[in-house]
Specification:
Helices cover 56% and strands 5% of the residues. By secondary structure, it is mostly helical. The termini are far apart.
C-alpha cells in the first residue's frame, strides 16, 4: 500500500491536500511547477504548491489510506465480481431451492456494509507498511531473480496455510454464529458473496497476507500484483462451479471445492491448495454426484 499511496500522492493527492490545507502563500516564492525528488524508496513528483500537512504527517496518511482502500476494494469487488457473474457464473444456479430471494442484492449490501469496518481494522497494517516497517523491497537484485520467482509460491503456501487455520477457527462453535455464520447464509453463492461477511471475519482471513511482508522480504510491485490476484481468486471460487475431473483437482482448491464448503460447512477450508485440508482431515473430493445443479434438474 505504500506504493499505491506514493503514486496517489504524486499524481493526485498532493494537489488535493494543497488545495484543502495550503501552506501560507508567503512561503511560496516561485510559481507552482513539478520537479523530481528522490526519497529512500521512491522518486517523487513534488509540487511546489505544498500542503500544510506533509506526506509523512500521519493523520494525512491515515485519511489518504482510508480513502484509497475504500475506493480500491469497491473497484476490485465490482469489477471482478461482475466479470465472474457475467461470464463464468451459471445463472441456472439461481433456480436452486436454497438460493435466496433477492440474494444477489443481499450479497452486495452485506459486502458494502463490511467494507468500512474492514478498512478500519486493516489500517494499522497499511500504516506500518507506509512507515517502513515491512520487508518490502524495490530492487530485484537485492535478493536475486530466483528468490523473486520462488517468493510467489512461498507467499501462496504461507497465506493458504494461515487462512486454513483462521477459517477453521471461525467454524468453532463459540465464535461461528457471531462472525462466520453471516457468510454461510449464502448456501449457493454467487461471485458477489465473496466479500459478503462479517467485517471481523473478512479482516481475520486477510491477516496472513499482511503478516507475510513483515516476516519475509517481498518485491513491492510483486506484492501489489499478488494482492490484486488474491481478491480475484476469492471472487472466482464463489461462482458455485462444480466442474470436476480436471488434472489439478486434487492439488488446487478451486470453485468446486469451495462450493462443497458452502454446502457442507466443515470441509475444504483452504484458499488455494488442498494440502492443508488433507493434513487436517477436512478434505472432501468434488464429485459430479455432489453437483448442486442436480437438485435443479430434479425440479425440471
Amino acid at each position: 500500500m505504500d506504493l499505491v499511496l506514493h503514486l496517489a500522492d504524486d499524481y493526485l493527492l498532493d494537489k488535493v491536500w494543497a488545495r484543502l490545507l495550503p501552506v501560507n502563500d508567503h512561503l511560496l516564492v516561485q510559481p507552482s511547477y513539478a520537479s523530481l525528488s528522490t526519497s529512500a524508496n521512491f522518486t517523487s513528483i513534488v509540487n511546489l504548491q505544498q500542503s500544510a500537512w506533509a506526506r509523512d504527517y500521519i493523520p494525512r496518511q491515515i485519511i489518504s489510506l482510508s480513502v484509497i482502500t475504500l475506493l480500491g476494494i469497491h473497484f476490485l469487488y465490482f469489477l471482478f465480481a461482475w466479470l465472474s457473474y457475467k461470464f463464468i457464473f451459471n445463472h441456472e444456479m439461481m433456480r436452486h431451492p436454497r438460493f435466496l430471494e433477492n440474494q444477489v442484492k443481499q450479497e452486495i449490501q452485506c459486502s458494502l456494509r463490511a467494507f468500512p469496518a474492514m478498512t478500519l481494522l486493516t489500517l494499522p497494517w497499511f500504516q506500518a507498511e507506509v512507515m517502513g516497517y515491512s520487508k518490502l523491497y524495490d530492487n530485484v537484485e537485492d535478493y536475486g531473480w530466483a528468490y523473486f520467482a520462488l517468493s510467489v509460491p512461498f507467499f501462496l503456501l504461507f497465506t493458504d496455510y494461515g487462512i486454513y487455520w483462521v477459517h477453521r477457527l471461525l467454524h468453532h462453535p463459540n465464535i461461528y454464529k457471531t462472525f462466520h455464520k453471516p457468510h454461510h447464509k449464502w448456501i449457493i453463492p454467487t461471485p458477489f458473496a465473496s466479500h459478503a461477511f462479517h467485517p471481523v471475519d473478512g479482516y481475520l482471513q486477510s491477516v496472513p497476507y499482511h503478516l507475510f511482508i513483515f516476516i519475509f522480504p517481498l518485491h513491492r510491485w510483486l506484492y501489489l500484483g499478488l494482492f490484486v490476484f488474491v481478491n480475484f481468486w476469492s471472487i472466482l471460487i464463489h461462482d458455485s462451479d462444480m466442474v470436476t475431473g480436471h488434472a489439478l483437482e486434487k492439488v488446487i482448491n478451486g470453485p468446486a471445492h469451495h462450493t462443497l464448503h458452502h454446502l457442507y460447512f466443515t470441509v475444504n477450508y483452504g484458499q488455494y491448495f488442498t494440502w492443508a485440508d488433507r493434513v487436517g482431515g477436512s478434505y472432501r473430493q468434488p464429485e459430479s454426484s455432489l453437483d448442486p445443479m442436480l437438485e435443479i434438474k430434479k425440479q425440471s
